[in-house]
Amino acid sequence: MRCFDRAKIYVKAGDGGNGVVAFRREKHVPFGGPSGGNGGNGGNIFIEADSAMNSLLPFRRNVHFRAGRGDHGQGKGRAGALGTDCVVKVPPGTVIREALGGQGLIGNGDILLELTTPGQRELLLPGGRGGRGNSSFKTGRNKAPQLAENGEEGAEMWAELELKLVADVGIVGVPNAGKSTLLSAISAARPVIANYPFTTLLPNLGVVPLSFEASMVVADLPGLLEGAHQGIGLGHEFLRHTERCSVLVHVVDGTSLQAVQEYEAVRLELELFNPSLAYKPFVVAYNKMDIPEAAEQWLTFKETLKSQGVDAFSMSAATKEGTMDVIIAAYHLLQSQKNMSFDGGSGEVGLGDGLEVGQVVKKMRDAPIEQFTVTCDKHTRTWQVDGAGLQRFTQMTNWEYFEAVRRFQHVLQASGVNQALRDQGVREGDTVVVGQMEFNWKDSDDIANLGDWKRGPRGSKVWPH
Question: What integer is the mean pLDDT of 440-448?
């Protein structure tokens, strides 16, 4: 069941291409300047609502989605090509959340995107920026820089997809009350119909035409049991689909000996699952009037609900008798709801109320290098310098070039990292970790106060000072 309306996928934006160090090599140009091009930006991760999809079953086996990497820069000032974007298609009504235990881009479990309209496309993760080539570092004092940047690594995360069907009207009730029969009677949908409980395990959608210009989408939802708000009978899997419906049609099994109690039980489950569902407009449809037992109990049921301020309709979904009255009543409630939303009344939470993780990632990338924290492990004498801007700068530094190392030393000095380490008591020979790089501290008044550099998890290349 979880494969239908829940899925967990891994998404990774493309890495940016590396910049390149190159110089002009032309006849009669003995002192050609730098000509290294910039790397291309990595591909983005987009989420798109596809009307051809009605479940999350395609994600049962297809879990990993990666955008293409940007090409590296080339000589003669040629920039690398952009990485290929990756578009993840989901059914309309899908909510994207950050998976628990992920990288924590904006907080575990937070809503990132909501896609409700077919064809709607939203940016989930932006691709990494391309590294600059040496032509970008040319200055009046350094006309032949031997310096280039690595491409920025693309953001990655595990995301949870949750499907909440987008329908105007939702049909609810106990199992085997006749919900699927009603949907087949009023629309062209052909759900599975049988005389046993839980025939419907997946919600079905149908379009109900009322006139040449008027129609509405109706969803037949699986049956509810007492305790559904606690997950009994896969209650959570079913109840979430009622949240996006504007109007509910409550189908009551007229042959039940406790029709009123079953009606009240379902209403209670809706309220316990989400209190806002208790305030949704609804229509009560007393079904199976073609059976004598149900016809005999109809007046008693009607009077009981009328005493509660609820008007009930009688119908027979099997013979289609009275079904049009139920649909017209639901349509009038739907129109009144739309008018309330238009006039500024309280309505459903729509697109744009969630956080845009793409903007959050871009904001993290633009974080100033001066914002950092310093922590120390007194037992191992290891200092950890953390900061989004500083970590990004470290990752994009190409340590193969001596000028890149010197540039990084200047950044540590200018951003205040060196002074912060001194103020907190760094000693000669202590290990300092910045991003994926670590080095042994060398106490010196000169700006180049770093000892032997070596890579962190990715290798052990050493640059002697």
Answer: 63
